[in-house]
TrEMBL record:
One of its GO terms (biological process) is methylation. Residues 49-96 form the Methyltransferase type domain. This is Methyltransferase type 11. InterPro entries: Methyltransf_11, SAM-dependent_MTases_sf. GO terms for molecular function: S-adenosylmethionine-dependent methyltransferase activity. Signal peptide: none annotated. Gene3D superfamilies: Vaccinia Virus protein VP39. It comes from Patulibacter medicamentivorans.
Length: 217
C-alpha cells in the first residue's frame, strides 16, 4: 500500500502498545529512518507518547501519516477518534491508515467495544477527501477490514490487485489449502476433528439422558 500512496512525515501510530511480548507488531520497521511516534492511551512497550484518541494533543495539521491498526474496536468513541485523526493530519496529502478485525472473538486490551463492516469504515472515514476500504475473508462477513483516508489527495491508485500482501491473504482464504471450510470459517483438519469429537460426546450424553427420562416416565 505504501508503494502506491505517499506517506508523509511525521508518522504517528495510535495504539502502539505491544500488549503481548510474543507479538511482532512494531511498525517502526516499515518506516525506516523516518520520524515515527508510537502513542497509546497508557504507558508501555512501544509507547513514546501517551494520547487519548478522543482528544489528541497534536495541533491541527501536525501529522503526515496516522496509523491505527486493530485499535478502533478498543476505542469507546471511534467516530470521534477518526475525526481527531483527520483534524491533526496535514491538509496537503495527510494519510490515515486503519484496520480492525470483524470475525474475531472478544479480546480486551483492556476493553473490546466494536466490530466494523467495510461500509462502517467508509462512514468513519467520511470526513476525508477520498476513501478506500476493503474486507478480507468471506464477503458477507470479512475476517478483517482495512481503510484508507486522505486529506487533499486521491486514492485512485489503490485496489486489492495492486496490493500483493492483501491479495495473497485473500487468495489464501479463498483457496483454503489444507483447511476445512465451514461458512466463513477455516479449520485445520486436526482442530476440527477435536471439536467434532467433543461435540459428539456431548450429543451422545444428551441422547442417553433423554432415553433415561423416557424410561422413567
Amino acid at each position: 500500500m505504501l508503494a502506491l500512496v505517499t506517506a508523509k512525515d511525521p508518522v504517528v501510530e495510535f495504539g502502539s502498545m505491544q500488549v503481548e511480548a510474543d507479538q511482532d507488531i512494531d511498525l517502526r520497521r516499515f518506516f525506516p529512518d523516518r520520524p515515527f511516534i508510537g502513542t497509546d492511551f497508557r504507558e508501555g512497550p512501544g509507547v513514546d507518547r501517551v494520547e487519548d484518541l478522543r482528544g489528541l494533543t497534536f495541533a491541527d495539521g501536525e501529522i503526515g501519516t496516522a496509523v491505527s491498526l486493530d485499535t478502533l474496536e478498543h476505542c469507546a468513541d471511534p467516530v470521534t477518534a477518526v475525526r481527531e485523526m483527520h483534524r491533526v493530519l496535514r491538509p496537503d496529502g495527510g494519510l490515515c491508515l486503519i484496520s480492525s478485525v470483524m470475525l474475531f472473538g472478544i479480546h480486551g486490551y483492556p476493553n473490546d467495544y466494536f466490530r466494523f463492516t467495510p461500509e462502517g469504515f467508509r462512514q468513519l472515514l467520511e470526513p476525508f477527501d477520498d476513501v478506500w476500504v476493503c474486507g478480507i475473508g468471506e464477503p458477507g462477513i470479512p475476517r478483517e477490514v482495512f481503510g484508507v483516508g486522505i486529506r487533499g489527495g486521491s486514492l485512485d491508485a489503490l485496489s486489492l490487485d495492486r496490493m500483493p500482501q492483501l491479495a495473497a491473504h485473500q487468495k489464501w482464504w479463498d483457496d483454503a489449502a489444507g483447511m476445512v471450510r465451514i461458512g466463513p470459517l477455516r479449520y485445520p483438519p486436526r482442530q476440527l476433528a477435536k471439536e467434532l469429537a467433543r461435540e459428539s460426546k456431548r450429543l451422545v450424553r444428551e441422547r442417553l439422558r433423554g432415553r433415561s427420562s423416557s424410561t422413567r416416565g
